[in-house]
DNA sequence: AAGCCTTTGAAGATG
DNA sequence: CATCTTCAAAGGCTT
């Protein structure tokens, strides 16, 4: 197994992690995808724009194949007209300026409208943005911070005032990656920007996507001073929001995970809390509840619990079936990968920020945030995932992911719908992509609500990839 | 009630 | 080997 190659345990730069950081390799792939996607988008929208811009756009294609910009100016210009109209229709002209046709959450629609002459966001616009899309505020800070970081490295003092993006230090300004720094805040210190931060732009999302340098730090950061207040990605270690992440059973009883554990526990504590006591020597400060690995899910938990409570008055027949169930191999779940660990940690935060609850939408946000993470940040989760796999293998040597395949490969009904030839789930490739420059309508997450709000027909409004969270026009 | 949606990554299955 | 598929979490949504 590649993840065990190191053997020493702390080979944080294991091959699998390095392979996982395939951004450079992916980059070209996505670049070409994006180029074609933008060409498609440009084709679709060509009827809406001036023909005179066509040549400019096509000339940028070859450039885009080599090194595509986040968005071409021509494309930006093309989207402005419709966007301006859309913006006016939506909020009565609050967003008068041309929107930023990129990542929806970092797009403060061009900054000519909602901003005051001194460069700060107008109270009205700020309130609107915060109400409509709290993430926008954060991400706007991210954008500004990135801009500031980029400028800070430049010889000019442009980080103070940018002619394109006014640097607004919001009262709640935080570093864009602050919410993601869960174990150590040594990275991304303001004024000491990581050199990789704005180096690249995700061709799909428009998010500055840092290149992944080859020198992944083997450091497994667990900063005692900063981690205790933040949910741990290993949810079974530190329950989030007072809730056990996994319903755990031991002998037919549910056990919440010990809440006294802290993230900055040592590895022995980690093992003690993470795995059954027979696997790990007990720790003096931890109670040994006999909690099995959270990956084990026994489907008969409630039944067994209730039966144990009631007593052993059931028929032998029932007990036989019960024994059969007990003999039944418990469902050992797959170890969580890096992104799953990241989602576990960040989901509650995103939910709180944007007031969304639907996991599909949350996961989209988390996916974009994941790509916005620096390599160091991602490395922490890859490392956690690697340890997860190691521990999982140690606990269940004979387990295989194949065990969880229902009916075996190719026999289970295909879950995902077959996409239409031109259909895609990517916002950046959405036909209605310009809508992403507008704040999402978080309270109108259904076509019906969207139509009611905007009085538009179904086809013109409902954006399937956007799942209705954005006003599409 | 069951399955879908949506994300990324790991791993198994298939051609 | 490349590609495809499933599963891991999560909770609202759809059928």
TrEMBL record:
Residues 19-43, 63-91, 317-328 have a biased composition (Basic and acidic residues). Belongs to the TCF/LEF family. It is found in: Nucleus. Residues 1-11 have a biased composition (Gly residues). GO terms for biological process: canonical Wnt signaling pathway. InterPro entries: Catenin-bd_sf, CTNNB1-bd_N, HMG_box_dom, HMG_box_dom_sf, TCF/LEF. Pfam families: CTNNB1_binding (PF08347), HMG_box (PF00505). Residues 332-400 form the HMG box domain. This is Transcription factor 7-like 2 isoform X15. Keywords: Activator, DNA-binding, Nucleus, Repressor, Transcription, Transcription regulation, Wnt signaling pathway. Gene3D superfamilies: High mobility group box domain (1.10.30.10), TCF3-CBD (Catenin binding domain) (4.10.900.10). Residues 1-96, 301-331, 407-427 are annotated as: Disordered.
């Amino acid at each position: 197994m590649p993840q065990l190659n190191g053997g020493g345990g702390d080979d944080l730069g294991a091959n699998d992690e390095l392979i996982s950081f395939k951004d450079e390799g992916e980059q070209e792939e996505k670049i070409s995808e994006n180029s074609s996607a933008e060409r498609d988008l440009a084709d679709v929208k060509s009827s809406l724009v001036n023909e005179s811009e066509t040549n400019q756009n096509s000339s940028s294609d070859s450039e885009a194949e080599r090194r595509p910009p986040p968005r071409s100016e021509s494309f930006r210009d093309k989207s402005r007209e419709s966007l301006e109209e859309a913006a006016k229709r939506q909020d009565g002209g609050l967003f008068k300026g041309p929107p930023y046709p990129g990542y929806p959450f970092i797009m403060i629609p061009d900054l000519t409208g909602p901003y005051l002459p001194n460069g700060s966001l107008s109270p009205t616009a700020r309130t609107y943005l915060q109400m409509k899309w709290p993430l926008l505020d954060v991400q706007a800070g991210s954008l500004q911070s990135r801009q500031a970081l980029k400028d800070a490295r430049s010889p000019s003092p442009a980080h103070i005032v940018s002619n394109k993006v006014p640097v607004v230090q919001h009262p709640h300004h935080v570093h864009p990656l602050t919410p993601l720094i869960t174990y150590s805040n040594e990275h991304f210190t303001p004024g000491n920007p990581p050199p990789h931060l704005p180096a690249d732009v995700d061709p799909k999302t428009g998010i500055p996507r840092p290149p992944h340098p080859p020198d992944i730090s083997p450091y497994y950061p667990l900063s005692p001073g900063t981690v205790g207040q933040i949910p741990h990605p290993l949810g079974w270690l530190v329950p989030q929001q007072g809730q056990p992440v996994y319903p755990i059973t031991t002998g037919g009883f549910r056990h919440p995970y010990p809440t006294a554990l802290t993230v900055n526990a040592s590895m022995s504590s980690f093992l003690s809390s993470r795995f059954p006591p027979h696997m790990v020597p007990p720790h003096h400060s931890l109670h040994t509840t006999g909690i099995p690995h959270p990956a084990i899910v026994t489907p008969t938990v409630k039944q067994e619990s209730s039966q144990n409570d009631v007593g052993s008055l059931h028929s032998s027949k029932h007990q036989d079936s019960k024994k059969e169930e007990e003999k039944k191999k418990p469902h050992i779940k797959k170890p969580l990968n890096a992104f799953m660990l990241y989602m576990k940690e960040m989901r509650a935060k995103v939910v709180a920020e944007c007031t969304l609850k639907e996991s599909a939408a949350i996961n989209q946000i988390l996916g974009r945030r994941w790509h916005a993470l620096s390599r160091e940040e991602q490395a922490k989760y890859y490392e956690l995932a690697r340890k997860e796999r190691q521990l999982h293998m140690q606990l269940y040597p004979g387990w295989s992911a194949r065990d969880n395949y229902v009916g075996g490969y190719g026999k289970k009904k295909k879950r995902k719908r077959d996409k239409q030839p031109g259909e895609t789930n990517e916002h950046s490739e959405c036909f209605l992509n310009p809508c992403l420059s507008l704040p999402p309508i978080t309270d109108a997450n259904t076509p019906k609500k969207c139509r009611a709000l905007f009085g538009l027909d179904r086809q013109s409004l409902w954006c399937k990839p956007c799942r209705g969270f954005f006003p599409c026009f």
